[in-house]
Amino acid sequence: MTKNFHYLIFCFATFEIASCASNIDKKNISQDSKFPATFDRLIWTTDFDTVKHDFVLIKNREVDADTLTPKKVIDEINSVWSEIILQFKKVSNDTIYVTIPDSYYLTERIGTSGASNYMAATTYSLTELKGIKYVHYDFEEGEHLSPGTMTREDYKNYR
């Protein structure tokens, strides 16, 4: 019985090592555990690069800016982060205005990197809209994040 037990442990360990090895081929990126697995629905997401030891932006799919609407993009964002409800206010020139009526989860619960990752992914996703270069976020300031106007340039360290 001991021999069979050791054999089972060996098989399990081999399986685990093989499973881990198959994940190494994904450009040294490992999903940030603060975000749900469904975040690949978004146009842009963030992930952690284990070689750079920093977060990076990943474009999940190409989009046609002519077919995108603020509602479509915001609905996708809200379907992933159900604790953070982003609401469309208006578009003015090259700026989209959005609000987060209850920002507690974003500003206090997911930490500084979680909040920054949310803002990077939503800013990049919303600036896929035709003619949009700026995203103005309106929400109650918290320990990890302040409202304001963001651009892709604000997240150039994610590249």
Structure description:
This protein has 159 residues and is α+β, with helices and mostly antiparallel strands. It has one domain. Helices cover 35% and strands 21% of the residues. It is built from four helices and seven strands. A four-stranded mixed beta sheet has the order 4-5-6-7, covered by helices on one side. Strands 1-2-3 form a three-stranded antiparallel beta sheet.
**Number of domain units:** 1
Radius of gyration: 19 Å
- Describe the main β-sheet briefly: 4 strands, mixed
What is the approximate shape? globular
Strand content is 15-25%
Low-confidence stretches: 3-35
Measured as a percent range, the helix fraction is 25-40%
Number of helices: 4
From the N-terminal CA to the C-terminal CA, the straight-line distance is 54 Å
Instruction: Give average pLDDT, whole number.
Output: 81
Overall number of strands: 7
Q: What structural class do helix, strand and pairing data support?
A: alpha+beta
* Major β-sheet strand ordering: 4-5-6-7
Compressed to H and E, one letter per element, the order equals HEEEHEEHHEE
Write a compact overview of the structure shown.
Helices cover 35% and strands 21% of the residues. By secondary structure, it is α+β, with helices and mostly antiparallel strands. It starts with a helix and ends in a 9-residue tail after the last strand.
List keywords for this structure.
disordered N terminus; four-stranded mixed β-sheet; three-stranded antiparallel β-sheet; single chain; alpha+beta; 21% strand; 4 helices; 159 residues
